[in-house]
Amino acid sequence: MAPGGFFGRALVVDVGDDAASAAPFELPERVLRAYLGGVGLGTWLLHRLAPPRVDPLAPEAPLAFVFSSLVGTPLTTSAKFAVVAKSPLTGLLTDALASSRFAIAGKLTGHDALVVRGRAARLSVLLIDGGEVRLEPAPELAGLPAAEAETALRQRFGRGWSTAAIGPAGERLVRYATLSHDGRHAGRGGLGAVLGAKNVKAVLVRSATRVAVADQPGVLAAAKDLRRRSFGPATAKYRELGTLANLLAFNAVSTLPTRNFTAATFDDAPKLAAEELHELRGVARNSCASCAIGCEHIYSRKDGGRQRMEYENVFALGPLCGVADPDDVFAASAKCDELGLDTISAGGTIAWAMECAERGLLDEPWLRFGDGAALLRALDAIGARSPGLGELLAQGSRHAAGVVGQGSLEFAPQVKGLELPGYEPRSLQSMALGLAVNARGADHNRSGAYEADLSGEVNRFDGGAEHVVAAVGTEDRAAVMDSMILCKFLRGVFEDPFGEWARLLSLVTGWAVDADELGATARRIVRAKRAFNQREGATATDDTLPPRLLTAPLELASGRQAALSGQRLQAMVDSYYVARGLDEEGRVREDDLPELLLDA
Amino acid sequence: MTEAGVVLAGGRSSRMGRPKADLPWHGSTFLYRTCAIVARIVDGPVVVVAAPGQALPAVPAGVTVVEDPVEGLGPMQGVAAGLAAVADRAAMAFVCSTDLPFLHPAYVRRVLRGLAASDADLVLPVARGFRQPLAAAYRTSLADLITKLIGEGDLRPGMLTKHCAVTQLDDAQLLADTALARFDPELESVVNVNTPEEYDQALARPAPEVTVERFGALAGKDGHRPRAGRAATLGEAAELAGLTLDRHIVAAVNGDQVTRDPLLPLAAGDVVAFLSADAGG
Description:
The complex is a heterodimer.
Chain A: E1 9-15, E2 20-26, H1 29-35, H2 38-49, E3 63-66, E4 80-86, E5 93-99, H3 101-107, E6 113-118, E7 124-129, E8 132-137, H4 146-157, E9 162-166, H5 168-171, E10 179-181, E11 184-186, H6 191-197, E12 200-206, H7 216-229, H8 236-240, H9 246-252, H10 269-272, H11 274-280, E13 282-286, E14 296-300, E15 306-308, H12 311-317, H13 326-339, H14 343-358, H15 372-384, H16 389-393, H17 397-404, E16 414-415, E17 418-419, H18 429-437, H19 450-453, H20 465-485, H21 497-509, H22 515-535, H23 547-551, E18 554-555, E19 561-562, H24 566-580
Parallel strand pairs in A: 1-6, 7-12
Antiparallel strand pairs in A: 1-2, 3-4, 3-6, 4-5, 7-8, 9-10, 9-12, 10-11, 13-14, 14-15, 16-17, 18-19
Helix pairs in contact in A: 1-2, 2-20, 2-22, 12-14, 13-15, 18-20, 18-24, 20-21, 20-22, 20-24, 21-22
Chain B: E1 3-8, E2 24-25, E3 28-29, H1 30-39, E4 46-50, E5 64-67, H2 75-86, E6 92-97, H3 105-116, E7 122-127, E8 130-131, E9 135-139, H4 142-151, E10 166-170, H5 171-175, H6 178-183, H7 196-204, E11 209-214, E12 227-230, H8 234-240, E13 249-253, E14 258-259, E15 271-276
Parallel strand pairs in B: 1-4, 1-6, 4-5, 7-10, 11-15
Antiparallel strand pairs in B: 2-3, 6-9, 7-8, 7-9, 11-12, 13-14, 13-15
Helix pairs in contact in B: 2-4
């Protein structure tokens, strides 16, 4: 019998030319306990089901939707699902989380994970109803935004289904296309292209069963307590202004990447700030299912539409491209939503292209920093994969820099091929390490090391031993939250994170889990990710930052400079390897592989 | 080029009647303020040089204390000890005494930049009519030379100038720095306090004029727009902003280090940003 909250099995669906077949895939309890669910279990599944060195866009490359024991419980923020695959952007592991009802319905098909392989002969949708699967042709959905596809599928199949869909960019295999549900994106690493390569426009799931938790009264009491605490000061920022509250604050502390990381402050930041837009444009606030925080802030657009705005999309499509007009940034965000593009990678790739054009490395004289119309034109070209610029930029900044050459890789804003998020590494040096070593690439959700930099507890301009400790710690916490599945916006409410999470997990599963075990689980998940990347060809040379960030100092408003040398970063990376128990080349040691249960 | 700070805490303080390093100043001490002001500018270590056995009040996090190996040889012995303590980590250092309650960060920066821009070994300000060897910038490589001169019996602060390359900065040259001219036009950075009366006068002066900004959820109904007022420390600035520094709130002065130290000294013209400690998103 499976532990509470779990079914003890995944469903592996093989999509063929015109039909799909499915087979259960047993998930032993020791694997569930070792990986928890979400990105952890997804990593284990990729180890087991992805052929080594597989082309991420090949039919045999698996795409896994992964749930956890907490999904479907009343514990606030647990209605999320992880999507895990080998990334067409990085060639390494990628995982992304999205919310919300798809998670519950997907799990209640009776599976802890749904894995999709194969390729349909024509554009289709995949329906999973309990253990039954079927493939339905859907040529009429071609070119539709994911949200419109969801609406069309609701009309076609009825209201009982939850849908995860891709937009036109996913269909056209843009390497940073997203996969989305209900307006929320599993955004990073090109998961939409992986599904698009299977000729699957959408996956529909329907609840078919129920699952019991080990201690129902205990879970209810814990959920009530967690909900109460989630209204406190630790989540005030998300409730009141949302993540866009970062923008002006980051500008004030010289960590708002601007014009492709040539500056860390943006003079026009106030025009894009939540504090301003909330007054002028704020129209609604929304939350995921089973969430008490309600972080989504939806603004009115000049053209009469409405647009959800987050810090990362405003940073990437605003300051990073030098664009200051909020209507241009709103329009660009809406276009990314419609096309199904990761805003961070889209903004980063276009910012790189703008710099190339200004330096004369690209013959696109219209593409200039600060030009909102040019930004929108570039997004259209990417979404359409137009010959020339669109095709080039659809590959992401690293690949595009490989084509353009002429030193442009030096300023391509990426790590392992994934574009950098809105955290300036030179003025956040714990985060610099986190970005350099993370398995997913330049990533702020799997490494929240900026927490230490912005806490005042470390010298954020002088990375060293304590920054390594901070980076390892936040990476561990993220590994657990993303695997047992709790939203990281909740993290500030936990006084004793591992202890409290262990108690929640025990109530749901019936396992006697403690903080130490959960700490070991975190370390295992991080190692398993590295082991996957190692298998796919990653080496220590991938654990670095773009040369620009290691050579050009950053001028601060205080009159000082922030500089991060390659030597200093390498010293932190080396210390990270030691802290993680890796060998000198950052590899998981042979002796540690059995503990990863990759043969279970 | 890495810069260090050296703060001399020793000295007899005979006219004051008690150690000047210990004198209370807006919730902390003279020593704490001086160290923290210097630390705001330099990118390397800050050390305090104490007399042998001298008990010191608390110093800011990250500041270290070294003992002057020999007592009674005067301030140049302390300068040598301080420079020697940082020589392996910094090429130059701002050196000052602890009794400068109006020392402005812009002064520290101006003097250090003067040294960085010259081939001199020592940038010696001549401010308010006096040479200021204890508010000056030194190459840390001078430590050995100073020790040698002291060994030869020359203990005077001015002795060094005969044996190394010196650039002097007069008032006009100092005030060519726009920030210094704006925020410390009388060069009160070099005003030291020697008697109880002078100390009382210093304490009675109004706190410096600063600007506070609140961001994100802290902005509240009044919005994020800057607000001017007077505050001598970060804690006072938080009060000015209507905030209490706790684990959910951090601050940065002029976009520099993030901190929640309520005793962090402020200076005229500072812009203090308060933000949520949770930066996720």
